[in-house]
Predict the 3D structure of the following.
Amino acid sequence: MRLWKLLGLAGLAGVAATGVVVARSERQRRAYTPDDVRSRLHERHAALQEQPEATPPPVTGGTAGRNRRLARLLRRR
């Protein structure tokens, strides 16, 4: 019975510690002025614009054979 009490207290301490960490990060996040947030967003946008755009792979006609096989299987029923 004593072990369960200790585990419960350890769990409660873990929840409290997590709450402290979340509250601290929330205070730090809210400490930014609107100008700070705006400048950071502009920096991130500029960094994304510098990266080359990924080209999608070429589309091949691989679905035609698959569709024919599917149609053949459906006709057999």
In short: The radius of gyration is 29 Å. Residues 2-30 form the longest helix (29 residues). The chain has a mean pLDDT of 83. The helical segments are 2-30, 34-50, 62-76.
